[in-house]
Design brief:
heterotetramer, A mainly alpha, B mainly alpha, C mainly alpha, D mainly alpha, B: mainly alpha, 11 helices, globular, D: mainly alpha, 7 helices
Amino acid sequence: MNKQLLASVILVPFAVAAAMIALNQTLNMQLLASVILIPFAVASAAFLLEDLKQIGRVVAFLSWMQLGLIALIVYPLFAGQTERLWLSADFYLTRMDACFVLLTGVVASCALTHGHLFYQREMLAERPPTEKSVRFNYMFAMFFVLAMYAVYLCKNLGWLWICVEFTTLLSAPLVFFSRTKHALEATWKYLIICSVGISFALLGTLFIFASGQHGAVSGGTLRIDELIAIAPKLDPRLLRFGFIFCLLGYGTKAGMFPLHSWLPDAHSEAPAPSSALLSGSLLNCALFSIWRISEVVAASQTSTLMSNVTVWLGTITVLAASLFLIRQYSLKRLFAYSSIENVGVMLVAIGLNAGWLFFLQAVNHSIAKVSLFLLSGNIVQATGKKNLPQQTGLMASAPVWAVLMTMSAFAGTGAPPFGTFLSEWLILMKAMDQHYYVNVALVIIGLSLSFIVVCKHIGKIILGAPNPNLQYFRPLASSAIPALLVISSLCLGLFSGAALWSGTL
Amino acid sequence: MMAVGVYVLFFACVLLLPPCVIGVIRKGKALMQGRVGAPLSQPFFDLFKLLGKDQTVSQTTTWIFRSSCAMNLATTLIIAGIVPWLSFKPIFPGDDLFLLLYLLALCRFMTILSALDSGSPFGAFAASREAFLSMLVEPAMFISLGALALIAHSTSLHVVFDLSLPCSTYDVPVWLAAAAALFLGSIVDLSRMPIDDPTTHLELTMVHEAMIIENSGKNLALVEFTHFLRMAVVYGLISQCMMHAVGRLVEFNQLTAAIVSVVSILGMAVLTVWIESVFVKLRWRSTPEFIAYAMTMSFFATGGALIGDMYARHGL
Amino acid sequence: MQIIATFLVTATVLLWLVCSATMAALAFFGKKINHLVPSTVLFAGGLTMLLAAMFGWQINYLWDAPWPIYLAVAPLSSHLDALSSIFIGLLAVVVISVSLFSPGYLEHLSHKINNGCYWVELFLFIIGMLGLILAANAVTFLVFWELIALSSVLLVVSDLSNRQARVAAFIYLGATRIATGFLMAGFLWMHSLCQSWSFSDWHFDQHATLIPAVLIVIGLCIKAGIWPFHDWLPYAHPAAPAPVSALMSGVMIKVSLYALIRLLVMGGLVSPWVSYMMLAMGLISLFWGILWALVQKDLKSLLAYCSIENAGLILVCISLAIICHGINMPEIGALFLAAAIFHCVNHGLFKSLLFLGAGAIDCRAHTRDLELLGGLAGKLPWTMFFFVIGSAAICSLPPLNGFSSKWLIYQSLFMLANKFHSIWLSGLSMSCIAILGLVSGMSLYCFTKAIGIGFLGRPRSHAAEHATEVTLPMLAAQLLLALCCVALGISAPDWMAVMQPACTAAFSNAPVLSNVYTIPMALFAFLIAGTSAIIYVLWLSDQTNNVKKYVTWECGFGDLTKRMQATATGFAENVTYTFSPLFLYSARSKIAGRDRRHFPEDVTLQVSTTPVLASRIYMPIVRVVNWLGERMLLLQAGSIHLYLCYILLTLVALMVIGVLI
Amino acid sequence: MLVTVYEVIGIMSAVVAVLMLGSRNVQIQLSMYAIQIWLIVAETAFFAWQYKQPHFYIIALTLLLQRAILVPLFLHGIARRLNVTRDPGMIVPAPLTMHLSVLLFGLSFFVGQHLPMPSAVSGPIVIASATGSISHLFSGLVMMLTRRLALSQIVGFLTLENGVYLFALSQTDGLPLLMEMAVFIDILGAVMIAGVLMFSIKKSFEHIDVSRLKELKH
């Protein structure tokens, strides 16, 4: 099995990539090709190398290298040399896409670097996963990340849809990592619900296509820029249905309130690094797709209704998530619901058509949430228990984790001076300026409630007498990445100069 | 020369009047009860006798117990200095009515603490009651005097109680109501019947006497004198109010005013005698209802002051 | 001048930040922490801050934090002027005394709390308050506001194993977060009206600013412990370590009241609705706070409730200042403002003094329960002396500072009444005087109880019997505050001049305050002290009479046992009985024995009081929210068919919206 | 209006989809699904022939290969390996679900009429085949909602996808090849992974009754 898979996985794409490099002389293309190459390299490493530890190192190194390459590629955008990194009419990067790509890269690298430690630790557990599953996990993780990069690259709704679908398919194995009954159940729900949702997104895409066809241009188009250009001429009713279906579909993927049902299961059952990936980057992908479509809608005639719908859905999501948070019995589910709450806030930002605020919120949320999930992974490994009641006295028995946990919880729930506070603040400000008074009130209520509740749960974990059955392993190594993330969130809060988004307000 | 005379007279009154007042009260009560009673000068003898004695002090007491009576006497002397309770009183700087009220509070503070100091159940009992009573009577004191200050447009007492100041008809009811409020308040403040029975010998029913149950000798003498002085001052204040009310009708010159003020203090003593012989002591739980009357009168005073001013401005 | 002041402030903050960072590092590597270093740093910082306040008092200077520090929409900007420097001065004094007090206090908690965390949080807490006082725009304000909240919550739970502290901290966290919510709403609204974040551009004089003003007032009042939002305060303040409760009660409350002054009074609020609402809230909490303080058995919660009372008093002054501004009587408005500021300072001083005293008792007698204390006068003589001074000050007895601010309040109330602007307003201010009178009587009751039961009489427990005097630095801390109390009392007229510029900034044509303050307090102090000294020497000193020691009067039946003294509950019983409906008061007595009518053998009396708002309003709300939380879980029942059903329903709903709208 | 081949085929496959709901036998369901997809293939081919759009031949071919042959065989194989024969159905008995989806058929006719489809473009095929495709969607969802077995859920999902495809075919002329490829990959991946999962469900639960997967809640 392994051998054929090896062959299939490595040889073919290697050839493809090599061909690409050969065919294109431009530096960017070659870099891009090498970026695409890296996951295959990882895959090959995952199956060639004997020692898991080595694999971990290689993956960590390669992921950072990939990030570096990407940074190299997108540098011209930020240097202001060019407006869009052109690949083809369907694939190019604008500055905002590049930001998201970089964010995804950072999240992925952090998660995988920490994962190196995590999986080592996992092998020492009383019921360790099979080596094969770990190898597969690494491979799928890398391809999953690649798919997410692709999402930001697509400027064609069709391709966008395909890439999002791929993220689902590639992340299902990550959820299935620990072959337990629970993991199985979670995976099944994730797969089925997201597939159904995504097929509605397909329907929506078709509607938008049709709206273009009937409203404006015969032949129709799915390219974002063309759609935006002809937006006023699009058939409004079709476009409206298109948007609704897409919102439904991608919203399912993003964990919008009534459709979020798969999210807590998947996040809680996946291994900590994968949950970090899911929460820190996959949600952004789904929301980004909604944002893509709302761009088109915003340029069209039916913009107000759509933004109202989105803002209200976001508000409801925030409220519902904060209510869900009240009674939680498992550490990772808690953070999963807090992600849902943040998704609500981002939806509000999208509804306000404030792309950069959406990005800002995404960055802050991803940073905080990744560190939370990684830490919760540590704790779960150290105590061997997932449930909240068994986690007490963390401050007494594992002070470093406790402090980081508290700070990232504050960061995740939007307490100043962390970055999340500022982005939420900006979003609320925007909403206030656009006279969404009720929504602002409700969102503030939701945020406050969730802050209180999360702090209550965290307090239960942190405080109390020392926890006897907690082995405090490698405090520095295991908290390096979270510490990094917390500090960066703090910096985002304090040093977020006006230059960063002077154009956006 | 005149000024010196006034000072001498004033200090004589400060030292001599209080025992006389209490003497009058005791004698009067005795007469009302059909006894001969002790001579008017008896309080002087008592005080001197006590001053001659050494004191016996509970071993649980602290410096508070020892020093409180001194502080009380000092404060009361200062009160006597700033309150125009006699018409021929030298004017004292900063005689503010709020200061007066808080000086009274200071006395009460020290008294209560010294009562608690010995750890005796009686002392604590009485202290709690004293605190409660003063708490209830405080507002009445505040706004009845406040009403007077309102009609004088100033809070410094020598202005408020200046007989030579013009006084409109509208002010007469204010003065009367304030006097009534102050008198009802004084019954509580000086712990007389029907709030407190100073002559009983059952510790559980007493307020003031139980508070000073531990004092003896010189200490007791000072406490007693402080109490007498305070009584004289308060009665003086009330009688001043009455004089203002009357002053609308009769014109006082300085001499008459002086004589009247002294005499009316003794008159207040006689009034007390009458009340103490007619009324019985109230049940403890029903004291708030009694104090409510003082409050009502002070409300009348304030309302009168406000409405009176309104009329004085806009006419009827 | 500006350079020096800003330099001093910045230097202080940096010093503290560095120190807390080092503390954090030490704690991180599990090193033992010596209290001497941080307390010295805190002390030094306090001194520099005091200097900064002195310089800053004469200037009016606005400066932004340098690049790259920036808060998304607004710079991190600070505003140092007369008003803020008065509060900085208060903070500095309290900080100095806390720095003296903390090491000795932490000794007796050393086995319970993590010193590193304690110091780091303390530094952050103080920095937060400093920043809040200086904050010149809304975002900066919120950042420091939340910094205060979080650090103080952590300080409350610094004793990790204490369940009660945990509950208190959680309640406090909830309350402060709700306050933040209100503030956020109010600030956002104001921004959308004024299109600016800086407080100097916010003017509350149009009608449109009514709602944001109300929101802001509520937010700040929650933090200031004003009725009906006070219920968190009696939990949080007693649970914290004594120095922290001193800071919380002494400064934190004042800081939010300062924000009220800064925003609404300086912002020129005119709306009568808001100001009368504030007045009502202030009066109620004035009465409510002291009423509940009276029936407390725990010394610290007694003090906490008393803080509610004083916060109410200050709020009354502020609201009256606003009212005066509204009816165009700036000269009296300025008086009220001065009274408010002055009382803030004074209450800060004596309340911290009292809390430190309570802390001293706590760490020596190991209990704060008045029923178990008593007879400490012999054990902690100096602590008692300072506590008596503090209590006298808080009962506003002359010649201490409590009186000087109370007098100013009475004076301004009287002047307002004396203006006869309208009969109603005069009547209102007269009745305010009446209420203040009642309240001052009650606080006298309350604190005679605290001293009399806590210190006097005979020890009621073994712990109290074996208590010993606290260490010298701890006494020095209390001495400092006590001296401040006396000094501010005696030199009150001069302190009017200190508040002059602040009032002039708020009310253009403010009167010269020092002319208003006519009482020669120093003279009175001297007279009282001198006369009583003379009397003492003449009659009471041991030279003049030989004192015979004897047992307390016990009606001749043997010696009194220590249970034959008044209890705290019994001492306050008059009030509890009289106002029993307000306490939901219930007393259950049980008399047992063979012939229980004539020979009762075992008599038990149980009295209980219940906070009305908490039990009747807040708890039901919390229950409803929890119930909602429980119900929400039913949506997440685990069945995939159900989840698919949600998708269907959402689809239908969205399509209906799409078709109809 | 004149009845076209498209309408006939679309309605027919929709009817088949409805009928599919009636049976509890997994084999029958699968073959029903196969019939649907054969019909759709035919329609595609016809479309390609009529509108002279050669790339639709490719689409038809892929459809034929993937969905009409590969997937049914795959699912048949799974059904045999896991020897599941009958789906007990949940809440609503199978016949009733059929009747329900007949109602939904009617509903989808109304929706099809009111869908904002300017039928000028693709002629008369609009309404009826809109009805067909939407009714596919409904039948698919009803299938997923009222069946216990993981297998039947997959079948339902595939039916739903058919609906989407039919919609694409009928409502948007000259649908880009891209979308079809997308659906192709989607189906492939989904079905493959679902198959793998089904095996492991069988392995660890001894059944593939997804309605009993209720461990994860709250």
